[in-house]
Amino acid sequence: MTDQPGWAPPGVDPRRANTARVYDYWLGGSHNFLADQDLGRAMAAIEPNVRAITRANRAFLGRAVRFLAANGIRQFLDIGSGIPTQANVHEVAQQAAPGSRVAYVDLDPVAVAHSKFILAGNAAAVAIEADLRAPETILTSPGIGRLIDFSEPAGLLLLAVLHFIADADDPWQIVATLRDALAPGSYLVVSHGTSENDPALAQAAEKLYNRSASSQAHARTREEILRLFDGFALVDPGLVYVPLWRPDSPADVPEHPRRFANLVGVARKG
Ligand SMILES: C[S@@+](CC[C@H](N)C(=O)[O-])C[C@H]1O[C@@H](n2cnc3c(N)ncnc32)[C@H](O)[C@@H]1O
Questions:
Q1: CB 129 within 8 A of CB 106
Q2: Which of 73, 114, 107, 116 is nearest to 92 (CA)?
Q3: Which secondary-structure segment (H or E) carries 208?
Q4: Tens of pLDDT, residues 84-129
């Protein structure tokens, strides 16, 4: 297509809203099309907190990566990594612990193309296109194998991605497959949309999103999300609404944390 911007790889359909690009729009990024903006605005009309939720999710990512770095983790596998924005995992990790290695994985060609672009010249980071629903493909990818040594503890980041995996694709088994490949002392970081606080709102948001987005969203209950951590031990404060996970300052905790519709947790494989 001749009217596509330079950052959009061939084959990208600008008329269909795309999960990575809608998220980029909410974060104030520039890698999105009108269809993404339309869906982003429609979602914001029924969930006015959606931009604050996405920013809170990114802030959690930063706190979690710094926590892992402080606990000795020097290699990170970030699946469903998205279109790079500010404070990406390699930036946070390599600032906290120089030399940290980061592998990004996403299904979306725009996310992967832009990740490759910003990682050019960074020998300690890589981006590959792969599907979380086929975890063995990720584990055996030569690109991942060059950076991630699965015999050493690693940080597995699954942020705002597992709610795009349907029950039929068994997200619990997917996480278990990845867990079994990790060395003891590794960490799992999850953020996941939940229906717990306001089931009617979650259902309305899901319905609207799923009508036009490239990936179908599935908000889950606390119990369903907790099961993703099977075989890991959650670190304090456990599975909590996103602003409540080890905030940098008490002033960062909003008045109604439950309105931040993502539950998050960090857990260690013993
Ligand atoms: C909401 S964004 C989250 C980005 C980033 N993890 C964060 O939390 O800021 C979700 C990302 O997951 C990706 N994604 C959705 N389904 C996926 C799958 N089956 N395999 C890999 N990536 C997937 C989308 O392309 C998108 O980039």
A1: yes
A2: 73
A3: helix 199-212
A4: 998 999 999 999 999 999 999 999 999 999 999 999 999 999 999 9
Confidence check: pLDDT of 62 > 80? yes
- Ligand 1 site residues, Cβ closer than 6 angstroms: 19-20, 23, 57-58, 61, 79-82, 106-108, 111, 131-133, 159-161, 164, 215
Map out the domains of the chain as residue ranges. 19-248+259-268
Pick the CATH number of 19-248+259-268 from 3.40.50.2000, 3.90.1150.150, 3.40.50.150, 3.40.1740.10: 3.40.50.150
Ligand 1 nearest atom to the CA of residue 57, by list position: 8
The arithmetic mean of pLDDT across residues 63-89, rounded, is 97
Residue 79 CA to ligand 1 centre (angstroms): 7
111 CA closest ligand 1 atom index: 27
What's the CA-to-centroid distance between 108 and ligand 1, angstroms?
8
- The CA-to-CA distance between both ends of the chain, in Å, stands at 50
Q: Report which ligand 1 atom has the smallest distance to the Cα of 85.
A: 9
Q: CB-based contacts of 217: which residues, under 8 Å, 6+ apart?
A: 163, 164, 193, 205, 206, 209, 210
Query: What's the CA-to-centroid distance between 101 and ligand 1, angstroms?
Result: 20
